[in-house]
Design brief:
Number of helices: 5
Oligomer: single chain
CATH architecture: Orthogonal Bundle
CATH superfamily: Winged helix-like DNA-binding domain superfamily/Winged helix DNA-binding domain
Strand order of the largest sheet: 1-3-2
Helix content: 55-70%
Number of domains: 1
CATH class: Mainly Alpha
Length: 96
């Protein structure tokens, strides 16, 4: 878990606009979100992001960090894995 923690910290350090943090804050709400819902959320926060950009963020967070998962029933809906919720919350809040 410490390797994931360090990768997440590094990922957020490279977040020049705050969009990555906003995405993690959304996932911390505990819902399951499609990439288009994530895009709409980020746009409502004032970020200009394409569907491809959202997919890239989801892909990176899922594959490199391993903290999100897609729903088995609804394959295109993503959520934060339970075992990482507290860690993500602590790291995101320390970066506010």
């Amino acid at each position: 878990m410490s390797e994931v923690k360090e990768r997440l910290k590094a990922y957020l350090k490279r977040d020049k606009t705050g969009m990555r943090k906003e995405l993690l804050l959304l996932l911390l709400q505990g819902g399951k979100y499609s990439s288009s819902e994530i895009q709409d959320f980020l746009k409502s926060k004032g970020y200009e992001v394409s569907q491809k950009g959202v997919s890239a963020m989801i892909g990176f967070i899922g594959s490199r960090l391993g903290i999100i998962k897609s729903d088995g029933i609804e394959k295109r809906r993503y959520f934060l894995k339970k075992e990482y919720v507290q860690m993500v919350k602590e790291i995101v809040e320390s970066n506010l």
